Amino acid sequence: MKIARAIEDVEHAEADLADELRRLGERHAAEADVYHTAHRLAQRCTTQVERLAPFLEPYGAHGRKVNGETPRLVERARRLGSMLGKHDVSALLLLQDLESIYLSAHRAELAWTVLLQAARAARDSALIEATTAGCEEAERRWKWVRTRVKQTAPQTLVAG
Amino acid sequence: VSARGLDGRIADIWGARTPFGPGESWPVRVDQRLESGVDERDIQWVQSACVLCSNDCGLDIAVKDGRIVGVRGRHEDRVNHGRLGPKGLHGWQANNAPDRLTTPLVRRNGRLEAATWDEALDLVVERSRAVLDEAGPLAMGFYNSGQLFLEDYYTLALVVRAGIGTPHLDGNTRLCTATADAALKESFGVDGDPGSIRDFDLCDTMFLVGHNVAETQTVLWMRILDRLGGSSPPTLVVVDPRITKVAERAAVHLRIKSGTNLPLLNAIQHELLANGRIDESFVQNHTVGLEKLRKTVEAYPPERAAEICGVSADEIREAARIIGDAERLVSTCLQGVYQSHQATASAVQVNNIHLLRGMIGKPGCAPFQMNGQPTAQNTRETGANGDFPGVRNWQNEKHVQELARLWNVDPLQIPSWSPPTDVMQIVRHAETGSLRFLWVIGTNPAVSLPNVERIRSILRQERLFVVVSDAFLNETGELADVVLPTAMWGEKAGVYTNWDRTVHLSEKAVEPPGDARPDLDIFLDYARRLELRDADGNPLVKWTTAEECFAAFRELTRGRPVDYTGLTYEKLRGSGGIQWPCNEQHPSGAERLYTDHVFSTAIDECEDYGHDFLTGAALERKDYAALNPAGRAILHGAEYVQPAEPPGEGYPMQLTTGRTVYHWHTRTKTGRVPELNAAAPDVWVELAPDDAAALDVGEGDLVRVESPRGAIEGNARLSGIRPGVVFVPFHYGSWGADGERRAANELTIVAWDPISKQPLLKAAAVRVSKVASSRGEPAPAPTTTASEPVPAAVGREGAR
Fold first, then answer.
1. In this predicted structure, what is the pLDDT of residue B800?
2. A31 part of contact set with chain B, CB < 8 Å
């Protein structure tokens, strides 16, 4: 069995996504909803990965913790955000960043789906339960990004 | 001054008691106030309804020699049975204020100067054309009110959505009632409170969550007081961080930490489910979502909620027991829910409680998602805010096509690619410069939006052209390029609807002063000058009077849940208010919705496909089809999440903002009424006695309240507020304060509920410090309400 690989893929995807969400939040702190939602979702990536803790040893997977706030990364993004806050180029940048994070959110969801499929085939009901919850959270993230993209694109591309 | 029988009803806010028992008719008590020296025989009475809260009490306007000289409650009105509150009794004097705007103003060389209507409107139209040509409709924004009439709103919605073609139209209902609207849509499919005001007469239990009804809706509180004084009085369960007059009458008062409604409501549902206090067959037949809800609330036993909410588990259990034992339950939510963290998620839990108990659509049983403003319901119904006209669904192509057909425009002309833009996002577009034209109508964002320093700086930008329509030159008007003087209530005819769907007609009683004009006429003139056309090249707006507009709106509602087709001005004339739906099936109006327990959740009937409760992600048609509620109500579970700005280092206390009974909004009207102004002349800061002692602050001392956004100063009132919480009334802007900063919104956080987009005006972290001693002078806060000074509060605490 190579379930360890699927578990580690989830961990990586979640860790990357958390970093990217924090960067998004800070770069676009002037968009209050983006700031708050991105940070909230980033925090929840940690909880997502913790769901898998009981399965690391049984499947021989390496544990990987999701970073909390990375001061250097956050500081750089925050500086850029405050420079761009009142400039109309910030909207275009927001659209780009949302497009990029949409892909990362989907990558994470796919990692959870792969793990869920493996859990089903392995008949591991505890892993199925943990992974189903992970899939639900993963879905809400790209749906949020999609909603925000749909709202941002018209103003960014057509106004002005 | 004569206000029949009393002291002008300033100190005696609710007047004499007229007790009644369950199911009996609330006795009539006619309240009246006339200018002193006016002989009643010289008065002409003109039918109207009060516009100083969401109750819309029926009243007649007293007119003498073409002037408003008083008011009298209408005894036949279903809402108030003749009564009026202090604002209703006195507020009409604002119409006669000497500083009404009587001519348009245009900014020339940096100063606002008097201009003619032609000059002002030509300038507005010229700027609109220039912006439309250079940047297109998405550079245009409109922000209106909860104070106009239905006809004003509907005309505005048509002009903006089909004429200009921008999604950037919102109302200040975003600050007051957006969550009510959102919660009703999420649970029942469409907007519109299901119950009747008479359910307050019939119920045996009331559950009031974040709803200081004694101050927000004084006449509804009179009704409740009379039930409490009659036979078989209802039992009250109250959730509020302050010891309000409502809380004083509660069997259980849950004085929770601000922003913790959700875990509390989850724990109550936990208890209802654990103890089998649910109507299994109702839930089975008429709802979807029970299993997910059960899973969510299982994680909230009373002990866990108690820890989060800062109340005892026993109190939560007792509240749940009372609610679980109720046979006829009425619940209400207002700003304590709507302006808090997780607003829609919490409001929906109150709907859940009624669904779990099967207490909806029958006498004495209803959840009420309350409104704040008198005509907020119409902002929503006409689509002058974040909704589509006629409770239509922006994501439903058939609904958009219906609108296009009714308006005779290309469906593509109507922005339906995303939900109508909320005001905080409109402001953000103005901040980045993609929005260049903003028309503010009958509202005062320079005082009422969060973080007003930011709002002011946005409105001041050279690149943004700001038009303000108002009856007075308020703080926002001061920043405008053009100011248009408007007629107020009593100076124009129109219709409006209260929180229990009661529709009133307000007749024109007097002429507006000087050149002031009704908002409707201004929008019509704007559309004419801008030459807005329909698909056949005819004028887009087909009406010229309010009554013709109402007839057009009626057609727009045909076949929708919000059915006005049976209503006419003639039918409303002389009536005591008529509820919608009013149509062939319900010619006298329907008292309650969902009496057959079929909800408006069918996929082509519903107004919205719903949201993810954590992020606000908009669900799409396919998601809704998968849920397939098809006439069943929707139970939504939601987990508690940490607030955006928890009190902590540097800012250890929690700010909550709110109203006092004597004022309305930013006091544009009530600040000009001598009795009301004298009753609450200036801002104050409410602190719990222990918190005050720790800061060496005594009653009346001048304190400074600071948040990461700004600071204000005010005199301290030591009240029965929950320790750790600071209350500041939101009414006081710079007007009347020599420019001094005292707006509560200098402090508030820029954050909003993910679904309703309602700003979190009760969620900032602050610190308080003493500035100066008062030398014994108490704070200028009313002593008659929740801002009552502390000895009484302490006494009650001790007695428990």
1. 31
2. yes
